Amino acid sequence: DLARAFAAKVGDTGVVMHTDINEAMLSTGRDRLLDEGLSLPTVVCDAEKLPYRSGLFDLVSVAFGLRNMTHKDVALAEMCRVLRPGGRLMVLEFSQVAEPLRKPYDWYSLNVLPLMGKLIANDADSYRYLAESIRMHPPQAELKAMMKVAGFGHVDVHNLTAGVVALHVGIKC
Asked: Among 8, 57, 62, 129, which is most exposed with the fewest C-beta within 10 angstroms?
């Protein structure tokens, strides 16, 4: 979805690279893009070892993927490396919900989501993993600090849906 949106924004003058470490997911995304008449360079790659030269990109984005990376600090440093000075990293990820909603949200995501996953998709385990992986992911302030350590001179955090999701935008200085 993001690759499609970025491709529309840059038009014929820009290039959008469509990447993922999971070949099956990448193939599904590529096929959807092709069905819409959009052909983008598609590369299976590991965000912890990006196969691109330093300073190549104006923008790097990751949506609902950083949470699954083993070495988030290494991946963030790699994303910073491949950005030109002034380039931006956009990280869209599940995050820590605002305090008044935290306990009900935790109960819902740990109890209701797996049950719905079992009833609708016959896959409670994936939805249980989702809830658990969200809790293991660094909260907003911690991820912001990690991005600064990785080399981003300025980082903004935008909470969406009371923090259920947050957009972190880092600028490489």
From this structure: 8
Average pLDDT, the chain: 95
The burial of 168, by beta-carbon neighbours within 10 Å (0-12 exposed, 13-18 middle, 19 or more buried), is given as buried
Tokens for 58, please give them. 């104006």
H/E run at residue 121: helix 113-121
Q: Is 122 helix (H, G, I), strand (E, B) or coil?
A: coil
Q: Whole-model pTM?
A: 0.92
CB 147 within 8 A of CB 172: no
Q: Which of 45, 38, 43, 28 is nearest to 5 (CA)?
A: 38
Distance in angstroms (rounded) separating the CA atoms of residues 156 and 132: 25
**Interval 116-157: pLDDT, tens:** 999 999 999 999 999 999 989 999 999 999 999 999 999 999
| 118-126: long-range contacts, CB 8 A cutoff, minimum separation 24 | none
Output the furthest CA–CA distance in the chain (Å, rounded). 48
